[in-house]
Amino acid sequence: MSKLNAEMGCLPSEIKFNILSRLPVRMLCRCKSVSKDWLQIISDPYFLKLHQEQSKRNKQLLLLNQGMGDDEDDTRPQFVHFLATSLEKEVHFRLGGFICGYVYMIPSGHDLICLINRGHFHIFSPSFIKGIRLPQAKLSNCLEMDAGFGYIPSQNEYKLVHMFDVNPNPFAYSIKCEILTLTDGATIGADAWKEIKQECPFKVSGWGVLANNKFYWIVSVVCTPCEEKSIVSLDLETETFDFIPHPHYVSYLEGNDLFLVELKGQLCFIDTFAYPPVTDIWVLVDPVRKIWVKEHRIDLTMLQGFDDEQTQVLIHGYENGELVISSQQKSLEFYDTRRKIFRKGEDLNLLWHTGICLYTESFFSLGIVDSGL
After folding, report:
1. Angle in degrees, 0-180, between the axes of helices 45-57 and 13-20, rounded to the nearest 10
2. Contacts for 23 with CB less than 8 Å, ≥ 6 apart
3. Helix orientation angle between 2-9 and 36-43, rounded to the nearest 10 degrees
4. CA distance linking residue 258 with residue 269, whole number of Å
5. What is the pLDDT of residues 296-329, one digit of tens each?
6. Which of 5, 97, 228, 327 is 20 to 30 Å from the Cα of 167, by its Cα?
7. What's the whole-model pTM score?
C-alpha cells in the first residue's frame, strides 16, 4: 500500500480525486488510514459530492434470497446475496440471527434498505454491510404490513412510514400513521416513531413510493376505490393525505396489473394489460395539477420467455437509458426506451421470490438504537 501511496502522491489532485471516487465506501473507509493525504481527500466535501455523483451513475444490485417457510418456530438465518456489479465480483454474507422467517424488502431509491419481518422493521446498509433493528412500531389489527421507505436528498434523511389499523372490527378499518426519521449517524431513540394527527382515508396496497416529498400508495381493492381516488398520497411537510386519480379510465375499468415506482425522481404508474400484452408507463409530470402523461408502451411479446398467463413484469429502476426489469426469469432484462428493444442480462439464478432492488452507495451511517432501558 505504501508503494501505491507513493505513486498516487505524484499525481495531480484532480486525478487522485477521480480515481478514489470510483471505489466502494467500505474500501474508502480503509483507505483513510493509508496516509494523511488520503484521509484529507476522502473527508473533503468536494470528494464526497463527487463520489455521490459517481455512485448515482453506477447503481448496485441487491438480491435477497431466503427460505419460503413462515413457521413461527423457524430460526434459520436469512441471507442476502449482494452483487457489486460495477466491481465485477460478488460478496456473500448473512444478516445474522436477529432475522428469522420470511423477510420483505422495501427499497429507498438510494442507499439504505428497509426489511420487514414478523411485524419488526430493520434497516440495512449495503455500503457498510450493517443492519439494525428499529424500535417496535405500533401493532395493527390487520395482518398486512403497510409501509413506505424513501430518501430525501435536500435533508439527507430517510423517512419510514407505517400504516396500522386500530379498529378491532374485522369489517371496518381506522388507519393511523406513524413516521420514523433516520438522520446520518444519529442515535435512534425508543420514542423515534411519531404518530401524525390525520388518519389515512383508505387501506392501501403495496409499498409506498416516495417522490416530490410525498409518499404514494395504490388504494386497496377492498375499499372499492373510484377512478378519482385510486391513489392516496401523504405530504411529508404538511402530514396530510390526498388523492391522485387513475391515469387511464379504460385500464381502471379492466382492473389491470398495477404498481407504482419512482423513476428519475418522478412518480410512475406501471399498467400491464393482459390482452394485448403490453405495459404502459405513466409519469406524474405535474403533481400539483395531478396530470399524468404516458411516456412508454412496452410490447411484452418481445420479452424472451414471455407467457401471458404467468409472467409478472416488475420494473426496478432506470439506468443509462434502460429500464431494469424482472420477469420471473433467472436473469434481469434491460429495455432500451429509445430503441424499444430488450437486452438480456447475465444469469443471476433468480428465483420467483428473490427480492430485487437497485441502490446507490453512500457514506450515510446508521446510528445506534437506544432501547431506553
Report:
1. 50
2. 31
3. 70
4. 7
5. 999 998 988 777 666 788 999 998 899 999 988 8
6. 228
7. 0.90
